[in-house]
Amino acid sequence: MIIITGRPVRTHRTNPLVKLRWNSVSHPMVYTMQRKDYTIGLITNNGSGYASLTISPNTDIAVGDKLYADGNGYFPSGIYTVTAKIVQVGQDLISIDAPYTSMSLGFGGYVNNLSREGYHVSVEVIVYEAVSKQEKSLGRFKYAGSADGKIIVDISNQCNRFLKALYSEYNQTLQVNQRQDYCWGRAYINYEERYDGGTYFPASDISEQVYFTLSAKYMQEKYGQNLGEYTPVAISGLKAKFLSDFKSPTWFSGYPFTLSFIYSELIDGQDITCEEDELDQNKSVVNHLDWNIDQSQAVGENIFSPIGVYTGNTKFVDLWLRIGSVAVRRYVAEGYVADGYVETVPPVAPAAITPFDITNKIRVKLVSSCSKNAVFLRWKGIIGGWNGWLFERNQDVSDTRTIVTEVSDSNELDLEVMTRSLATTEVVS
To answer: The pTM is what?
Structure first.
């Protein structure tokens, strides 16, 4: 028998009931397994100072076989030889050369038959491709494990190759206010024990699927490879971060600006709003907006752009996500569209949940650009979200054409050569 004892899943640091299943694909995504061929029901002294173990009947264990026996603290765990076997009704009684001088009874532990030829665990990695909305197998892989039956299965390499190939194929246009299907995936494993002459019993971990994104984590972060601090959950007081490499990003006027976040399965089906506070130079709130996040874009890595039309008085914008609320909607009388006849009607919040914030606020600085021929770059950051920055230097480009003479094989050839020079100066606001 093989059982899964660990998955690439963490519990929330302040709420152990919350399972955080999102991982960075650039780090190990480890499943741990434990092989237990037979569970020990009873441990006794065989009369000669060695252990006698009661296990399930009809085992493939024979005298002379090598076993790994876990003594559950009653005798030292290790590799032993089977010295005797008695088949009884409903159980087998085997003796091993493990010292056991106590006359009291012991309970628990397990044995693995190391004499099984070709023993290994076959693991198949299954991923969900969000672009095609289909599952696909990334192949089967063999894992033998150690003598004590511990097996380490890391699926990050397979998932990393899958996601990078997907990203290369589909990353053509950045689609705002929707799920980025080429940046994330979902996975689970199928597994079974195999050995010469054995009977296979396939098992699946489909009920415990995990998620991964095209990202990386810094060393010694609190959740390791897990994206726990970036995963929104539907529990008041547990706030996630946006997928931004900047603690306070900058929005340059006239250039695109987006924020990325994980639209997790833990908030799927809930009403989510984006809240916007506009702040002046004194960082006082001068206006508030909110709008609905599209529920059809769950679950995955999502990207959005704020909707506010900001005046010169707005110097900063605070953005955050809220659950259980519905955005204020605009009301216009049908057939009457005269200026001023538009009012804001606050909706009734759903009774199912009291609204609360599910992310921290992120403060965006608004900057007016006055540079000439500036360079704006966008890149996918280390944590997986999109970032942008305007490199503001005035650039003057000049082209000159000159005639040069080239001599080849006693023939003269006049060539027109164009040269381009680039001069940059600091921007003076």
So the answer is: 0.80
